[in-house]
Amino acid sequence: QGYIKFSQLEYFVLDEADRMLDMGFIHDIKKIISHLPKKRQTLFFSATMPNSISSLANSILTNPIKIEVTPQATTVEKIDQSVNIVDKGNKLALLKSIINQEGAETILVFTKTKHGANRVVKYLDQQDIRSEAIHGNKSQAAREKALESFRLKKIKVLIATDIMARGIDVKNITHVINFDIPVDPESYVHRIGRTARAGTEGVAISFCDASEFKLLKAVEKVIKYEIPRDNNHPFYGVTAKPTHNANTNNHSTSKPKSNRPYEKKASSADEKPGKKQSFFSLQRMKYKARKENKN
After folding, report:
1. Which pLDDT score, from 0 to 100, does residue 100 have?
2. Picking from 105-119, 218-232, 240-254, 275-289, which range would have the lowest pLDDT averaged per residue?
3. What is the rounded distance in angstroms from the CA atom of residue 111 to the CA atom of residue 178?
4. Can you state the angle between helices 279-294 and 262-271, rounded to 10 degrees?
5. What number of helices (H) and strands (E) belong to the chain?
6. Whole-number Å distance between alpha carbons of 293 and 295
7. What angle do CA 15, 17, 20 make, to 5 degrees?
């Protein structure tokens, strides 16, 4: 819009570069670059840099130098990681049991969808556990308020989606719970990286139902580590109870069919004069009349 002059700009910095490019901001970035001086230094910062994004970055940068502080997709050694194999219908109850454990003071929960995050908040509210959700449908003000409440420990649980994972910088998060296994394996690293920061220890627990085994294997392939299975949690091998909306024992939830009581009503209508007779009672009277005529 012409309000800023870039003629003296020397440094152009993109933080979380791979996420910005991967989310489709490439055209916006190129538009900004077109207004910048050609003689400048451009810096990309990111926790991961997949090959597909690296090639895209190379088309924007000139003779770039790649500096890696830690190997790609490396998880912190001080994080106690585990997988809880659990029936999908038992995930909420399992989450509640972990929240109520001793030592679970500040808990960050990751869900796959915004709807899933809202559903977890609703369930915890019903259990008198204070929580908030942050995701793309929340306003910036609402997200900041939720994060501040989490930092000040006004709420014990914060539920987030992957899009918000990297923006969460809260000290002393004791537990990270993957309510859903992430679709993008590298998101696992960003999720659990919210705990065990600045030399502290942390716990990362991933819930995995039967439909998520392939996603779990993909995560373990990326991090080059088989996450230990915890078979001692209270819902291991427990089949979830069907919800009240479920169609159990092959009984239909639709309204049951009538046992055809109208025939009884028809006969009673014959006995009550002045009451409108049904079609079936009239047919019965005609049948009786024809029978009498034959006799």
Report:
1. 96
2. 240-254
3. 7
4. 70
5. 10, 8
6. 5
7. 110
Contact of 91 with 179, CB cutoff 8 Å? yes
Model confidence over 136-174: pLDDT tens digits?
788 889 989 999 999 999 999 999 998 767 668 888 899
pLDDT band at residue 84 using 50, 70 and 90 as cut-offs = very high
Average model confidence (pLDDT) for the chain?
Answer: 81
CA–centroid distance for 18 within its chain? 22
Take residue 65 and report the two structure tokens written for it.
């130098």
Who's near 192: CB < 8 A, 6+ residues apart? 75, 76, 79, 81, 176, 178, 202, 204
Q: Do 223 and 81 touch, CB atoms closer than 8 A?
A: no
Determine the Cα–Cα distance for residues 272 and 90; give it in Å rounded to an integer: 59
C-alpha pair distances (Å), 11 with each of 8, 32, 86: 10, 13, 49
Query: Distance between CA 194 and CA 196 in Å, rounded?
Result: 7
Could you tell me the pLDDT band of residue 246, with boundaries at 50, 70 and 90? Answer: very low
DSSP string, 36-80: S-SSSEEEEE-S---HHHHHHHHHHSSS-----SS-TTPPPTTEE
CB 147 within 8 A of CB 168: yes
CA terminus-to-terminus distance, the chain: 104
132, containing H or E segment? strand 131-134
d(CA 241, CA 238): 9
Share of the chain above pLDDT 70, in %: 73
Vertex 176, ends 175 and 182: CA angle to 5°? 165
Instruction: Look at residues 55, 43, 37, 51 and name the one whose alpha carbon lies nearest to residue 16.
Output: 43
